[in-house]
Amino acid sequence: MSIIGESPRWQSELLDVYTQVRTGILGHWPDCCRRIQTQTRLSDTRSNGHKKDKRAWEDPITRDLVRRLKLNPEIRSLFHVQSQMELIESDLDLEPDPKAYVDIAILFRVQFEEVCLTLECKRLNVVRPNGRATLAREYVRDGMMRFITNQYAQNFSLGGMIGYVMDGDVAAAHTALLEQIGNAASTLLCDPAQILILSHPDYFSTAHDRKPNRIELRHQLLSVN
C-alpha cells in the first residue's frame, strides 16, 4: 500500500472521509443495537457461566457494523471498508508477519495514492457479576496508544476511536475516559486542556504530538442500550 505524508490537504481529505463514515456508523448503529440486545437475551437464557470476552462481544459487534457499512450504497461507492486488516511490516529484511490488526480500515484512493483511515474499537462500561468495569484504562492503553506509538496510522494525521458503551451510560463512560486520558497525558503526548468536546458526552477530539507526524483522534461513544 502506498503511503502519503502529512499535510493540511490530506488532513482535510481524511476529515471529510471520517465525517462521511461517522454519519454512516450513526445511521446503522440502531440496527446494530437491536442485534446486540437480541444476542444478550439469548445468552442470558443459557445455563452456563461462560464469561463474555473480546471475542464474544467486541469483535462480533465490529464485524456487524462493518458489514452494514459495506452494504451502504453511498459508502461502498466511495470507499473499501475492511475488518481486521493485517498490517504487515514493509521492511523486506523482517519476517512478513502481521504486526497488528486494524479493527476497521477505510481505504480510498486520491490520485495515485491509497489512503487509510484507521478506526479502533473498544468496549466500555461492561457489566459483570461483581459490578461495572469501565475499561477506560484499557481504551487508553490498548487503543489510543497504538496510534501514539505509530503502530496505527503512522503516516497519517487522523485516526478514530469507537467506544461501545455496553450499559448505555455514555456520560459515565465519557467522564472515566477524560480522567484516564488526563492521568496518561504525558504518555499520550497530549494536553488534556486542549481536548475538544464536539458533542457532549458522546463525541470529542484529542491531539497528540507524536513523531514524525502529529495526530488527531476523534472519539465516538456509542450506547448499546
Descriptive notes:
There is one protein chain. The protein is α+β, with helices and mostly antiparallel strands and 225 residues long. It has one domain (8-223). Helices cover 41% and strands 30% of the residues. It has six helices and nine strands, in the order αααβββββαβααβββ. Strands 1-2-3-6-9-8-7 form a seven-stranded mixed sheet, sandwiched between helices. Strands 4-5 form a two-stranded antiparallel ribbon. Helix 1 packs across helix 2 (54-71) and helix 4 (136-148) crosses helix 5 (170-183).
Q: SSE order, as H and E? A: HHHEEEEEHEHHEEE
Structural class from helices and strands?
alpha+beta
Number of strands: 9
Strand content is 25-35%
User: Average pLDDT value?
Assistant: 86
**How much helicity do the residues have?**
40-55%
Q: What best-fitting shape do the alpha-carbon axes yield?
A: globular
What count of helical segments does DSSP give?
6
- Radius of gyration, CA atoms, in whole angstroms: 18 Å
**Biggest pleated-sheet summary:** 7 strands, mixed
Distance between the termini: 38 Å
| Strands ordered across the widest β-sheet | 1-2-3-6-9-8-7
Low-pLDDT regions: 1-8, 45-51
Number of structurally distinct domains: 1
Summarize the structure.
The protein is an alpha+beta fold and 225 residues long. The protein contains six helices and nine strands. The protein has one domain (8-223).
